[in-house]
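ok new one. same drill as before - structure tokens go in, u give me an amino acid for every spot. 555 of them this time. try not to just spam alanines like last time pls lmao
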């Protein structure tokens, strides 16, 4: 397990948490049934992944390759800085516990099974230490089971250690309803524990190259559609506490308070005692002068003042549980009117969307759009209602997480699942703010769904595709995300792609030309459509993303 495996772990965990986000949110009934555990874990993992990428980028410019300990340290610090909610805060502490062991090992020592097992053991122990009142049947239980299983096979290679940890975590997750009444009453497993199993599954894939198989336990197999309602109906039964606190009186504290704290390590015990007296769900994680504080209280001001007495609190976030629960579609935020937020690649497309009235989020290979970037754009739109166009399948999870953040602030957000820039352009073309919000979203979704999308790309290496084997330098024609054509030049491949797409019918072709596309590409394809497909209009936009010669849309 080297630094590259840690980097891969971050990426795989983020992708897996993104896929599991909605289902994890839906079974979130403990410690507070506010349906955000999946989103919080995703946001925490996103911050961790960004920190690791920043480390690799810095070392690529100058310096030796990162060590595994350095990569995990960056991962843990990123998670600490971006930790959201109870489960995200505990995940950050789990990573910090691993760092303590890996950093203490000799620099040249390989991360073998014994060292990895010790890291997982310390991770679980440090998570228990961070929670004021640990309770079994939560993410803590799942972490402890994984650590015990890893320790039992510590003499084996890392692959066996991570497989054992993941398998034990899955078993422990399935048993959480037996240990915690709130889960049993709702008929679900612990949402935070489910997220940890996803993270450990990503670790298995990063170390072994094999993806763990089999569905995760959720409490009621086969009843996925009913789970959100179960989550809501269990609100009174589920307790407000932490992955640790015993059930409080009905109703529970009114506010969730989180902040980062710059403070000497010696000041933290007094802070813990003060906050523990103010409320529950107390988790304080970190060290070496930087801490992440999470607590549920009725007096939010007093919780912040406690931090001021110990050091310098910043990134303060106060959430009123009642307001968060009320932030459902239809509830206006501070803004007025309706806005559209579009994620785009390429300066020309960005200008096009801005001229159409959209707030733009730039997405580039060097600076991929994050959920934080998208959430910031939603705030910039200053609208009570926002339609969000991710324009990329890979950004769907980030867009969904950003939408959840905005809804918590009272903004009505709908995500139109656009998978390509051309679908976003089609949706934006029919946007009408004078319509009712639901009608506008339906019209934009229909326009996007009626637009088939394709792109031309140049193969970087020899590989297998749906259309056969391609060689480095071949031109690939991807239709709806799959390689459908392999050709020798852009014009010829583009012609075949257009003919295949228009064979099923179409009234308009949209061509988005990349910044580095050769001159004349769009003109020759436009002429082909005009000559071979009568009554089909063509529109051309310049300034698409670099590295993608052409995007094609057929409506």
């Amino acid at each position: 397990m080297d630094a590259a495996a840690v980097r891969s772990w971050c990426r795989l965990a983020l992708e897996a948490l993104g896929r599991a986000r909605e289902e994890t949110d839906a079974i979130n009934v403990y410690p507070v049934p506010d349906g955000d555990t999946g989103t919080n874990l995703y946001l925490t993992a996103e911050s961790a992944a960004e920190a690791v990428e920043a480390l690799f980028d810095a070392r690529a410019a100058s310096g030796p390759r990162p060590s595994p300990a350095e990569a995990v340290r960056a991962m843990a610090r990123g998670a600490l800085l971006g930790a959201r909610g109870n489960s995200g805060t505990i995940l950050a502490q789990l990573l910090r516990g691993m760092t303590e062991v890996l950093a203490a090992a000799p620099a040249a020592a390989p991360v073998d099974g014994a060292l990895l097992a010790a890291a997982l053991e310390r991770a679980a122990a440090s998570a228990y230490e961070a929670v004021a009142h640990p309770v079994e049947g939560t993410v803590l239980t799942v972490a402890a089971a994984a650590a015990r299983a890893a320790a039992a096979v510590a003499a084996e290679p890392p692959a066996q250690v991570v497989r054992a940890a993941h398998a034990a975590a899955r078993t422990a997750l399935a048993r959480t309803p037996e240990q915690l009444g709130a889960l049993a009453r709702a008929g679900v497993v612990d949402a935070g524990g489910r997220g940890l199993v996803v993270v450990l599954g990503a670790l298995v894939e990063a170390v072994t190259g094999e993806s763990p198989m089999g569905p995760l336990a959720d409490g009621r197999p086969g009843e996925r559609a009913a789970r959100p309602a179960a989550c809501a109906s269990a609100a009174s039964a589920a307790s407000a506490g932490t992955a640790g606190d015993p059930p409080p009186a009905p109703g529970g504290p009114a506010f969730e308070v989180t902040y980062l704290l710059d403070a000497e390590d010696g000041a933290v015990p007094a802070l813990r005692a003060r906050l523990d007296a103010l409320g529950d769900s107390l988790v304080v994680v970190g060290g070496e002068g930087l801490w992440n504080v999470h607590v549920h209280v009725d007096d939010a001001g007093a919780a912040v003042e406690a931090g001021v007495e110990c050091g310098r609190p910043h990134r303060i976030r106060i959430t009123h549980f009642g307001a968060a629960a009320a932030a459902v579609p239809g509830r206006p935020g501070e803004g007025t009117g309706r806005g559209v937020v579009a994620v785009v690649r390429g300066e020309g497309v960005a200008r096009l969307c801005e001229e159409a009235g959209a707030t733009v989020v730039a997405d580039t290979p060097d600076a991929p759009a994050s959920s934080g970037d998208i959430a910031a754009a939603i705030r910039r739109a200053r609208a009570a209602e926002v339609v969000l166009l991710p324009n990329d399948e890979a950004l769907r999870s980030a867009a969904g997480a950003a939408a959840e953040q905005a809804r918590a602030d009272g903004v009505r957000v709908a995500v139109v699942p656009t998978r390509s820039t051309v679908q976003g352009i089609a949706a934006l073309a029919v946007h009408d703010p004078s319509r009712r919000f639901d009608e506008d979203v339906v019209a934009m979704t229909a326009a996007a769904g009626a637009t088939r999308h394709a792109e031309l790309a140049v193969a970087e290496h020899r590989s297998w595709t749906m259309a056969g084997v391609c060689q480095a330098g071949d031109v690939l024609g991807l239709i709806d995300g799959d390689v459908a054509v392999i050709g020798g030049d852009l014009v010829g491949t583009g012609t075949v792609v257009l003919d295949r797409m228009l064979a099923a019918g179409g009234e308009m072709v949209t061509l988005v030309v990349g910044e580095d596309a050769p001159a004349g590409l769009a003109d020759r394809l436009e002429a082909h459509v005009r000559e071979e497909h009568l009554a089909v209009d063509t529109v051309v936009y310049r300034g698409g993303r670099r590295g993608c010669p052409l995007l094609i849309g057929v409506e």
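Residues 220-242, 244-250, 323-333 have pLDDT under 50 and may be disordered. and btw The two ends are 48 Å apart (CA to CA).
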